[in-house]
Amino acid sequence: MPTWILVADNSRARIFAVEKTAGSMTEISTLTFPEGRLHEGDLTTDKAGRGQAPGAGAHGVNGEEGHKQENSERFASLICEDLEAARNQGRFGKLYIVASPAMLGLLRKHQSAPLRQLVTGELDKNLTTQTPEIIRKHLPDFL
């Protein structure tokens, strides 16, 4: 059964498979989430209110990263749903996760317990735009 490597950030997830423990990686799937690339201003139609405390400058009343965080949460959930479906079908035996630090935390949050048991390692780096060869250099020799 192959080992899968998930490489993800807030707008893109790539899944690779390795058939042999020291083998090369083959990209088998790409998930994109264009909303993850949008700036906060593109996600809202109106600016958040502004408040001013004595002695402090004006500041946003609502968190300006709110919508961006919601989209990242949604994408992490979708990724985990896809991985869960593949796990149920027996398509991989181990999972290695490479993700930006914030996305790694969200993926952990949305993993089911059975999926979490298949995670053999994690790397908190954003390598989604790198070639398979460069990604492979960041992974252990034997997956």
What does this structure look like?
The structure is a single chain. The longest helix is centred in the middle third of the chain and has 23 residues. The protein starts with a strand and ends in a 6-residue tail after the last helix. It is 34% helix and 26% strand. By secondary structure, it is of the alpha/beta class. It has one domain: eRF1 domain 2 (Nucleotidyltransferase, domain 5, 2-Layer Sandwich), CATH 3.30.420.60.
Could you give a quick summary of the protein structure above?
This protein has five helices and seven strands. It is α/β, with parallel strands linked by helices and 143 residues long. The longest helix is centred in the middle third of the chain and has 23 residues, at 66-88.
Please supply descriptive tags for the structure shown above.
Nucleotidyltransferase, domain 5, 143 residues, 26% strand, two-stranded antiparallel sheet, 34% helix, 5 helices, alpha/beta
